[in-house]
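Quick start: what a row looks like.
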Amino acid sequence: MLTGCLTVVVLFVLLIGGVWLASSWSDKLPERFVLRVPVKGQIEERSPDSGLFSFGQRAEPLSLEALMTILDRAQSDKRVESVLLDIDGLSTSTAKIQELSSSIDALRKSGKKVTALLRTPADKDYLLAVACDSIIVQKNSWMQLDGFKAELFFFAEPLKKLGIGFQAAQWKKYKSAIEPYTRNSPSPESLQELNSLLDDSWANYLDQVARRRHIGRDAFREVIDSLAVLTPEQALERKLIDRVLSIRQLEKEYRKRFGKPFDELVVNAGSYLSSTGDLEPHGTGNRIAVITINGLIVGDSIAGMGDDEEIDVASVRRAVDAALDDSKVKAIVLRIDSPGGEALAASSMLELLEEAAQKKPLVASMSGSAASGGYMVALAANKIYAQPLTVTGSIGVFALKPDFSGLLEKTGIHREVLTRGRFADAYTPFKPFDDAAFRKFVETTGHIYEDFTGKVAKSRHLTAEQVEAVAGGRVWSGKRAVEVGLVDEIGGLNDAVQEASRLAKLKKGTKPEMLYLPARKTWIERFFDGDAVQAVADMSDHLATQSLARLLPVSQLPGTATVRFLLRTEEPQVLAIQPFGVEMN
């Protein structure tokens, strides 16, 4: 039976592999074309697995890593006549929108025209679109420009009804990541931090639209506060956009302009990326290794046990070793998009990166979030860059211990325990701490907090008092983090690469290739590496996960990822995670 299953797997993979190879070989670009770049959804920092479900081209939605590579290559590609940015349903962080806007600015500066096509745009779609030369909104649609909001969810009461509670050790009052599980509403400190971040995002939105569209800041705010939902024609009248066209009208215009059918004229970004070498370096010149810390930071013992993007210590170790062993790699850029995670895992990653920084220059680039443990790993860098709206800081830790005693009582389950040792049963999830055990729990968390702040003081050349003034769990936007000394400069990935090149003393004017790490493998590569069964299993798991996510929208609520993370093991965990699971729309 097993042999038969393996035969089916092999035949299946070979069949799909043949389709993939045929598609790749036939993927040639025309001499002149319009590059269509779809931008949608969350925009993950990296694709979970490069090309896992694509044949000859990248599957959509494209990651930020892929999008920036595509826009960068288009700058010097004479075949690219112009770029059509197809923006639809953006729900990513404002910091990532800033990063993409910078890439669009560079593309326009190279002489390429960039047109934004909006379907039924909301505020984030529009915020990215204003970076383009012109904005087209689809005819008969609408624009929902109603401003930004920050939404918090609290689980303490429903968990209590189930007989589940959490005991928390919090360092310190601004470290409010525990609140969704211990409170039914936000603390004053949490509201203060969240309002500060929201103020920065709101001010940036108004300023960007006013500056790029040449309209008054107050006039745009009046549109948001009085209209909120407007037709494309109303937006055109107020000079918020440039044109209103149906998709068919747009296709006819392109055909008239270039003398070709739209389908023959347009090249999709996924095909373009595949045809220009994907994300792999192919030259023999100098390289900059980009090591990405993406998602929750976890220890090796529970790596791969969750549904969400995460990074473990072993993956970082492999990435560091690859960067150091490659003689073409002259410097390292640490790219961070992480809310943090396990404090011990973050500390282990920091140690690995500090050792790497002694051998090759290391610069940190913060994406949407580099908070708590995500900020800790940046301390290894010679220089830290952040976008103005990057969520960072959150220097602090907390520990949560689940208590299922109420659940046992509700279900009638009896638990009998025999112990040797005063605290042998203290850390069980099936009863709360007593006073003595809780004091030890808090003391342990305090020691880890002191270690964290000590690392910050050493790396940022601050006194203990200066660190405490900006720590305690306080959260900063990138702009404010520069002001308080936690970040060196405002800038994106390209700025960090330029600084890494300078520190490595590379020749000015030369553009090093990027080596993205940890290395990603496609399922077809894993098959030829001898892991065909696992490759097919991963495909099935991915499809099942996507289906369940649609059926169970509650699993996508802010904060539920942390709950699933906490419940992977029955042991209490000390975490360095940013203080709130928040969706800012």
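That is the whole record. The first helix runs from residue 2 to 25. The CA atoms of residues 370 and 392 lie 5 Å apart.
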